[in-house]
Amino acid sequence: MPQRGDTNYDKLHKLRPFLERISHNFQKALNPNECMAVDESMIKFKGRSSIKQYLPRKPTKRGYKVWVLADKSGYAWTLDIYTGKNDNAVKKKLGERVVKDFSENIKGKDHRVHFDNYFSSPDLLRDLKENKIHACGTVNPSRKSLPMLKSDKEMKRDDYDWATSNTGLSVMKWKDKRSVHLLSNFHDPTQRTEVTRKKKDGNEMKVSCHIALSDYNTNVNCVDKFDQLKGVYETDRKSRKWWHRTFWYFIDATVVNALEMKLPKMTLKDFRREIARDLVTPALVALRGKKRSLSSHLRFNKKKPNVPKSVRLESSSHQPERPTRRSCAACSSKKQQIRTDWMCSVCKVPLCLGKRKTCFQDYHAS
Question: Helix crossing, 242-261 with 16-29: angle to 10°?
């Protein structure tokens, strides 16, 4: 590891090869959805570390901050851990640089990227538009280069104001209970839609707003969906070593991303069970000659046994043995009962074996 002060010094030196490899695989494995979002995620850590951050508005307030670019399904396409200031130098326009770095591999593909006011600025959206990337986000009205719009005192609920630039940017202001400022490089500020709001008495009413705001509210929660899926069955292991938390965070992220690619679709719990079973299958099959039985790891139906493919197709450990005479699991049916003297020693499933019967071979071939 390079010494502190060296040009190649990296606070994530221990994990850097792992992080680069896994981030490359995330981008290689799946083409992202058209709608994407950039936001912050947190790795919980309460110990002492120079890269630990404090974000009071996040559910996890203390830990490592991770920049995430995720698509609408919750697939985390790009992740990067924030390591803080280098040599105590103040980093200007940090949010802009994060979005620009993340959007390098989606240039010219007309993706729609959404983010909050920490990242957005007129310069950023102008640069993204030149690279054929649609972008939309809330914006702080005190940002430079923004035009003056109506003040809050001049506006009532459901009122709006907007302005456009000669570079194709639109600035919109909508008054609800509070004022909302939006910045977009592809929305038409004159297009309107309706949203539902509640009155003080609890009744609902329809109010009109910019279509850009409705689009933003629908697609900005991509990273939140990723965090939600990752946190349901999170690998929560306490450790004094700073890199343990980071390592397990990316392992959980890998499981969530793999779930989005899984066909047919299944629940996250069943998918994690399937991963665990596939990982321990070689060891389970190797126990065939010992007293320990596989029956506790296999799920049986009332009619026919159901052995997972990971067990059924594992290596050549499956050998025939003679138990009591039972109905064949492959060719026997209610109309025609076919009994056999043979059973698989690993799967514990009765199967026909003979010159004219190939149930044993067929059952372990597909």
Answer: 10
